[in-house]
Amino acid sequence: MQETTLTSGRPDWDDARMFLAIARAGQMLGASRTLGVNQATLSRRMAALEVALGAKLLVRRTHGCELTDAGAVLVESLERVETEILAVQARLQGADAAAAGLVRIGAPDGFGVGFLAPRLSRLADRHPDLTVQLVPTPRGFSLSRREADLAVMVGRPEKGRLVARKLTDYTLGLYASPAYLAANPAPRETSDLMRHRLVGYVEDLIATPALNYAADFLRGWRSTFEITSAVGQVEAVRAGAGIGALHDYLAGRHDLTPVLPELKVVRSYWLAIHENLRDVARVRVAAEFLTETVRESQAAFVRD
User: Fold this and answer.
1) 8 Å CB contact between 76 and 106
2) Paired sense of beta strands 101-107 and 58-61, if any
3) CA distance 45 to 49
4) Whose CA, among 130, 150, 221, 251, lies 20 to 30 Å from 73?
5) What percent of the chain shows pLDDT beyond 70?
6) What pLDDT, in 10s, does the model give residues 237-283?
7) For residue 67, is it left (φ>0), alpha (ψ between -120 and 50) or beta?
């Protein structure tokens, strides 16, 4: 990247905040929704910011916006300012500050829908001024773009300015419904799975290699039913669709029969927080709640 110097005017700091939202969203539309500002106003404000700084910041494309070199430099500067502001805010509020406002938690659907959602009322009871959003973590999910304040991820995150800690290991096994096994003899060995209907993920939409665990049960696994949702896979297996590789903590809540129970796969959940937000009260209490809740249910996550 060429060295870029931002010069000239006196930018409006509200415009700078809007620019940061666009950079994180990658598009005007997404940023306008986040900010509650219409696109025409946002476009005018960005033009004013570019004039004030004497530099082109964004290249507008059909499907979004790209940062110029000057735009990338400005994002880095604004994020440093944001880090300082959040750090000062956390120090001034202190450890006993009340958690209030909006906190967004990203999580895989198995963990988020199947485990966390039924327990979120406890977090609300403790912090009545907190508004909690639970969102799925699809491909391309980014904490740096503030798509969430904290996220549960499969495997340790390797990129980004993140603070991460392991929540728990979890195991997966093979399951079928009693009705399916009444109509189809249970497999006695791994190779027998080839003669059964199998339930798994849509292979080309697997968000991370860690989720491609069906192949760990059977090399050459070919799903008859491909479902992008772990909860959806459980429901399909419950309805007799076939044999699925399911999270033990999800399957254990239903009347499902283990298949080849000696086989299991181990993965891990990690909690990740952008380093700028680690001491912000609303994020800190959500992270503490997640850690505590998983610890309380530790036995459900790992099958011996």
Assistant:
1) no
2) unpaired
3) 6
4) 150
5) 88
6) 999 999 999 999 999 999 999 999 999 999 999 999 988 787 888 89
7) beta
- List, for residues 220-248, the tens digit of each pLDDT value: 999 999 999 999 999 999 999 999 999 99
Question: What is the maximum alpha-carbon separation in the chain?
Answer: 77
Query: Which amino acid type is present at position 240?
Result: G
Q: Is 42 exposed, middle or buried (0-12, 13-18, 19+ CB in 10 A)?
A: buried
DSSP annotation string for the chain: -------SS---HHHHHHHHHHHHHTSHHHHHHHHT--HHHHHHHHHHHHHHHTS--EEEETTEEEE-HHHHHHHHHHHHHHHHHHHHHHHHH-TTPPP-EEEEEEE-HHHIIIIIGGGHHHHHHH-TTEEEEEEE--TT--TTTTS-SEEEEES---SSSEEEEEEEEEEEEEEE-HHHHHHSPPPSSGGGGGGS-EEE--GGG-SSGGG--HHHHSTT---SEE-S-HHHHHHHHHTT--EEEEEHHHHTTSS-EEESTT--EEEEEEEEEEGGGTT-HHHHHHHHHHHHHHHHTHHHH---
Residue linked to tokens 């290249």: 59
Task: Return the number of other C-beta atoms located less than 10 Å from residue 126's C-beta.
Answer: 12
Distances (CA, A) of 173 to 234, 260, 267, 300: 12, 8, 12, 13
Band of pLDDT at residue 139, cut at 50, 70 and 90: low
